[in-house]
Design goal:
The protein has seven helices and seven strands. It is an alpha/beta fold. Helix 1 links the parallel strand 1 and strand 2. The relative contact order is 0.21.
């Protein structure tokens, strides 16, 4: 089973905290978490990005996406949509789409906003669209998770979220719990789908 790719963009650290908490859940679910990020987009078309960021995880490659067994995709909210660097990377994946490289792999999405109604759900839905075009299987977060009923911060059935009011990057206890649950569910689904495909191959 390949690693679960946790791919995110973060300007102030909140989305990164979600990614790392999801990674804890992935590892608890018996899979390896591979955390990657995407470079910022410069307004200067001549600007060159460094090979890797000065700190934190390395930049994602298309091979990271091709080789993963599942994907967790995260972005801060930008006017109710994913951030441009995330969209820019997804726009570069047409070769994987042509080869069907991501078909039947499970995926989830996550986001952070600075206000409770700053577009969390619309951002999550916008990130699902290209993943559906890739044929991925979207994994939400079921209401069997108690924190979904009680949270006064982040958390939706469409994917985990963080409320970064006043630039608070620290996750609440509910947000952490939901991140762990989301990561664990993603890892378990990846394992189940791989087992099903393996058994189907044996039957043929």
């Amino acid at each position: 089973m390949g690693p679960v790719l946790i791919l995110y963009y973060s300007r102030h650290g909140a989305t990164e905290q979600l990614a790392r908490a999801i990674g804890v859940g992935v590892e608890a679910g018996g899979a390896t978490a591979r955390i990657r990020t995407v470079p910022a987009i410069s307004s200067d078309p001549q600007a060159e990005q460094p090979d890797d960021p000065a700190a934190g995880p390395p930049y994602v490659t298309l091979d990271d996406l091709k080789d993963c067994s599942a994907l967790a995709l995260g972005s801060p909210t930008r006017f109710g949509n994913m951030a441009a660097p995330v969209k820019h990377f997804l726009d570069s994946t047409s070769g994987l789409w042509l080869n069907g490289a991501l078909i039947n792999k499970p995926a989830c999405v996550f986001t952070s906003t600075s206000s409770m109604h700053g577009g969390q759900e619309s951002t999550l839905l916008s990130m699902m669209l290209p993943l559906l075009h890739h044929g991925m299987v979207i994994a939400g977060l079921p209401y069997s998770e108690p924190a979904l009923h009680s949270t006064a911060t982040g958390g939706t059935p469409y994917g985990v979220t963080h409320l970064a009011a006043s630039n608070v990057t620290t996750l609440s206890s509910d947000e952490k719990q939901l991140c762990h649950a989301q990561g664990k569910r993603l890892a378990k689904l990846a394992g189940t789908l791989i087992s099903m495909n393996t058994e189907k191959g044996k039957a043929v």
